[in-house]
C-alpha cells in the first residue's frame, strides 16, 4: 500500500535537488526568460552531478526516465525506486524553474523514451546522449496515432521523411527520438520510435519557436528528408503487431506523464509559497484551524488552491509508485497529468490575482510562472486527451468505441 509521505531514503536526493533549484535555477530564472533561446551555461557545472544521480539506479533530479524492472524478479513488499525518486527530484527542480530543467543536458524527455523501451544494447549506446522527443506534426497534434512521418525499410536502414513541430530541446540535444509509422495501412501498431543523432544527413532544424512561457527551453521545428537511420536505432521490436497495437510506444507516456505532472506540482508549490509570503506581509493570516468561510477571503482562496495542489501531488506520487512496483499505471499517469496540468494553471493565475499589482509585474516571478504553467497542461497529451484516456480506462472502452 502506498505511503503518502516521501520515503526517508529519498531525503538526500530531495535536498540536493532543492539546493540546485534554489542556488542555481531560481537566481537565473528571470535572466533566461528574457534571453529567449540563449543557452544557460550555468547548467553545465552540475549536469555531471545529475548524471551520477541517475546512473545510481535510483533516479535523479532531472527529467530522464528510468527502466522498469522485469516482473520475474522478487516483487514482495513495496518498492520505492527510480520513478518515485525522479518525480520527487523533478518537483524540487521545477520549484526552481521548469524551463531550466528542460534545458538540462542529458535530461530530456527523449531520455525517458529510451529508458522505457530500449533494449540493453541500445541503452548502452544511447544512455549518455541528450535526447529530445519528436511526436507532434503540423497536421497531428493530440492524436499521436495519426502520425504521418514515415520510416521505410531500405536495406540495413530506415528512410525517414516528415516534419515534427514543438520539439523540446530540438536544437540543443544530441539526438532526437522520432515517432514514425512503418506502415500507414497498419494503423497504430506500426508507430515506432527511432533514435536519430544530430548530423545525420537529411535531418534539419528548420527554426526555433517564440513562446508564451518556458522561454529558456528551445522548442524547434525539425524536418527529415530521406534521412537514413540504421535499423538498430529503432527502439524496441520492429514487428508490427496489430494485437498489441500502440502499447509499445505508449509505454513511454506511462513514464513521462508522471514527470510532467511532477513539473506542474513543483511550479504550483513555488507559486503558493510566494503567495503565502505576500499575503503574510499584507497581514492576511491563513489559519488551518478555522473553517475557510470564517477567514479573510484571500485566506479562503489560498486554502482552496492548496487543497487542489495536494490532490495533484498525491496523484503524481501514486502514478510513479505504481511504476516502481510494476503495476499498470496508464490510468493513474493520465489522471496525474490531467489533474496537475489543470491545477497548476488555475493555481498560478489565482496567485497572480491574490498578489494584485505585484503579481502582474516582473518584480515577482508570479507572472512568469503563470505563463510557464500553460504548457504543462498541453504537452505530453493535452487536458482533453488525458480526460478521454481516463474515461476509456474507467468505462472499459477502446479508442474506436470512445473518441
UniProtKB/TrEMBL annotation:
Q: Which Pfam families match?
A: Acyl-CoA_dh_1 (PF00441), Acyl-CoA_dh_M (PF02770)
Task: Identify the SUPFAM superfamilies for this entry.
Answer: Acyl-CoA dehydrogenase C-terminal domain-like, Acyl-CoA dehydrogenase NM domain-like
Highest taxon, organism lineage:
Bacteria
Keyword Ribosomal protein found: no
- Please indicate if the UniProt record lists Flavoprotein as a keyword: yes
User: Where would I find the Acyl-CoA dehydrogenase/oxidase C-terminal domain in this sequence?
Assistant: 244-395
Keywords of this protein's UniProt record, alphabetized?
Answer: FAD, Flavoprotein, Oxidoreductase
**Renumbered residue ranges of the record's region Disordered:** 60-82
In this chain, composition skew of type Polar residues spans: 73-82
One GO MF term: flavin adenine dinucleotide binding
Instruction: Kindly list the cofactors needed.
Output: FAD
Task: Specify the Acyl-CoA oxidase/dehydrogenase middle domain's residue ranges.
Answer: 132-227
Q: Which Gene3D superfamilies match?
A: Acyl-CoA dehydrogenase/oxidase, N-terminal domain (1.10.540.10), Butyryl-CoA Dehydrogenase, subunit A, domain 2 (2.40.110.10), Butyryl-CoA Dehydrogenase, subunit A, domain 3 (1.20.140.10)
InterPro entries named among the record's database cross-references:
Acyl-CoA_Oxase/DH_mid-dom (IPR006091), Acyl-CoA_Oxase/DH_mid-dom_sf (IPR046373), AcylCo_DH-like_C (IPR036250), AcylCo_DH/oxidase_C (IPR009075), AcylCoA_DH/ox_N_sf (IPR037069), AcylCoA_DH/oxidase_NM_dom_sf (IPR009100)
Q: Which family does it belong to?
A: Belongs to the acyl-CoA dehydrogenase family.
PANTHER family in UniProt: ACYL-COA DEHYDROGENASE, ISOVALERYL-COA DEHYDROGENASE, MITOCHONDRIAL-RELATED
Protein's recorded name: Acyl-CoA dehydrogenase
- What is the organism of origin for this protein? Amycolatopsis alkalitolerans
Name the lineage.
Bacteria, Bacillati, Actinomycetota, Actinomycetes, Pseudonocardiales
Amino acid at each position: 500500500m502506498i505511503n503518502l509521505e516521501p520515503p526517508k531514503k529519498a531525503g538526500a536526493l530531495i535536498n540536493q535537488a532543492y539546493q540546485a533549484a534554489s542556488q542555481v535555477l531560481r537566481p537565473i530564472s528571470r535572466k533566461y526568460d528574457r534571453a529567449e533561446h540563449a543557452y544557460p551555461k550555468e547548467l553545465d557545472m552540475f549536469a555531471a552531478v545529475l548524471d551520477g544521480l541517475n546512473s545510481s539506479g535510483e533516479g535523479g533530479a532531472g527529467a530522464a526516465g528510468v527502466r522498469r524492472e522485469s516482473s520475474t524478479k522478487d516483487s514482495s513488499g513495496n518498492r520505492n525506486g527510480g520513478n518515485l525518486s525522479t518525480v520527487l527530484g523533478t518537483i524540487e527542480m521545477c520549484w526552481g524553474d521548469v524551463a531550466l530543467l528542460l534545458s538540462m543536458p542529458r535530461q530530456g524527455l527523449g531520455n525517458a523514451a529510451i529508458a522505457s523501451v530500449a533494449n540493453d544494447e541500445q541503452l548502452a549506446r544511447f544512455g549518455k546522449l541528450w535526447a529530445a522527443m519528436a511526436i507532434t506534426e503540423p497536421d497531428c497534434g493530440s492524436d499521436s496515432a495519426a502520425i504521418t512521418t514515415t520510416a521505410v525499410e531500405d536495406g540495413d536502414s530506415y528512410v525517414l521523411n516528415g516534419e515534427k513541430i514543438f520539439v523540446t530541446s530540438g536544437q540543443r540535444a544530441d539526438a532526437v527520438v522520432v515517432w514514425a509509422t512503418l506502415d500507414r495501412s497498419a494503423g497504430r501498431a506500426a508507430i515506432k520510435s527511432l533514435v536519430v543523432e544530430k548530423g545525420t544527413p537529411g535531418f534539419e532544424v528548420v527554426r526555433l519557436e517564440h513562446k508564451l512561457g518556458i522561454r529558456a527551453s528551445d522548442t524547434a521545428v525539425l524536418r527529415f528528408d530521406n534521412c537514413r537511420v540504421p535499423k538498430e536505432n529503432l527502439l524496441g521490436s520492429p514487428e508490427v503487431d496489430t494485437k498489441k497495437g500502440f502499447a509499445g510506444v505508449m509505454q513511454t507516456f506511462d513514464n513521462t506523464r508522471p514527470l510532467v505532472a511532477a513539473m506542474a506540482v513543483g511550479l504550483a508549490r513555488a507559486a503558493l509559497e510566494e503567495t503565502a509570503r505576500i499575503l503574510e506581509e499584507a497581514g492576511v493570516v491563513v489559519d488551518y484551524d478555522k473553517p475557510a468561510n470564517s477567514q479573510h477571503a484571500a485566506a479562503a482562496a489560498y486554502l482552496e488552491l492548496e487543497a487542489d495542489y495536494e490532490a495533484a501531488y498525491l496523484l503524481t506520487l501514486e502514478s510513479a509508485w505504481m511504476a516502481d512496483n510494476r503495476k499498470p499505471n496508464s490510468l493513474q499517469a493520465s489522471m496525474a497529468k490531467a489533474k496537475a496540468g489543470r491545477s497548476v494553471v488555475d493555481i498560478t493565475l489565482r496567485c497572480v490575482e491574490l498578489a494584485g499589482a505585484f503579481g502582474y509585474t516582473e518584480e515577482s516571478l508570479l507572472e512568469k510562472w503563470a505563463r510557464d504553467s500553460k504548457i504543462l497542461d498541453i504537452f505530453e497529451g493535452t487536458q482533453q486527451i488525458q480526460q478521454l484516456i481516463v474515461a476509456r480506462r474507467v468505462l472499459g472502452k477502446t479508442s474506436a468505441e470512445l473518441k
